[in-house]
Amino acid sequence: MTSSSTEAAPGARTGYRHELYPYRGREAFLDGTLGFIREALDGDEAVVVAVPHDKVSLLRAELPELSTVRFVDTDSVAHHPGRLIPAWQRWIHEHASDGRPVRGIGESSWDEARSLAEVRELRYHEWLLNKAFAASPAWWLLCPYDTDGRHADLKAMSRCHPELRRDGRTHPSDGYDAEAAFPFEALGDPCDPFDELRYEQGDLAAVRAKIAECAERNELGGVRLRELSIAATEIAANSIKHGGGRGVLRTWVDEDRMICEFQDRGHIAEPLTGRLQPDASQVGGRGLWLAHQLCDLVEIRSTREDGTTVRLHTALRD
């Protein structure tokens, strides 16, 4: 068993641990993740593995078939940062049903095809994990991170993880500050040209019509347009109800995506809004959750001073 400089005995461990594992190359990936899995097995802990398909193949080739090591299907959430937290809640709940402690290995794909917007949201997701699971039962998430990737930013990722793994040992992350608010990365200006519509009470049909007009010009239709229209209606309705009674819609195309941006004077105080699955008894609060399920990417920036901006991304082609 590989020891850890900050690890408590398995029976004494409580709460959530979130550890970054920077690596370079196939062998380093296997060395860190297999060591983490062996520690878990020695401690009679279960392991949930959520990594890209090529990494699944690497790990399966090195591991025997074990009921306590579960590889989960990430296809439905791999490219949707806003869906990852409820997915982990589900996976951990399913695997922790027998009461044993659980470890997770979670690696997102930071490949060349990722847009800068997706990279921003993936980093934000890593920070939000600490808030989402702050009061959870004991489990420990290792996040392998390829430092050779085009989007690699080890300093930014260290800010999102309280712990860091090096040479098989766990150390506190010097870059992490539990008290600091995560600084939003600027969204940047809309692509030119863009269309603009100011809306208020009674204008939801006009919002849908403006979006349909942009979609038709860019050959977006069918189910994808209907899903975008539903999400956009929810966000515009939130502006009217919670954002001062009015808002501004801007639509444009950036490479292969249509983007709908909503701005209003409201403030979303809880950063996990839209990231946690609504309770069956919950009244309201489903609009942003629904947007995350229907769109390819949702970006939210909200401060008391500047109000709220929500961007909905929909791919023009599958």
Walk me through what this model shows.
This protein is α/β, with parallel strands linked by helices. It has 2 domains: 12-172, 3-Layer(aba) Sandwich (Rossmann fold); 195-315, Heat Shock Protein 90. 33% of the residues lie in helices and 24% in strands. It contains 8 helices and 12 strands. The chain has helices at 25-42, 53-62, 84-95, 116-132, 154-158, 204-217, 222-242, 287-294, and strands at 16-23, 46-50, 69-71, 102-106, 139-146, 163-166, 169-172, 195-200, 246-254, 257-264, 297-303, 307-315. The strands form 2 sheets. Strands 3-2-4-5-1-6-7 form a 7-stranded mixed β-sheet, sandwiched between helices. It has a 5-stranded antiparallel β-sheet with strand order 8-9-10-12-11. The protein is elongated, with a radius of gyration of 21 Å.
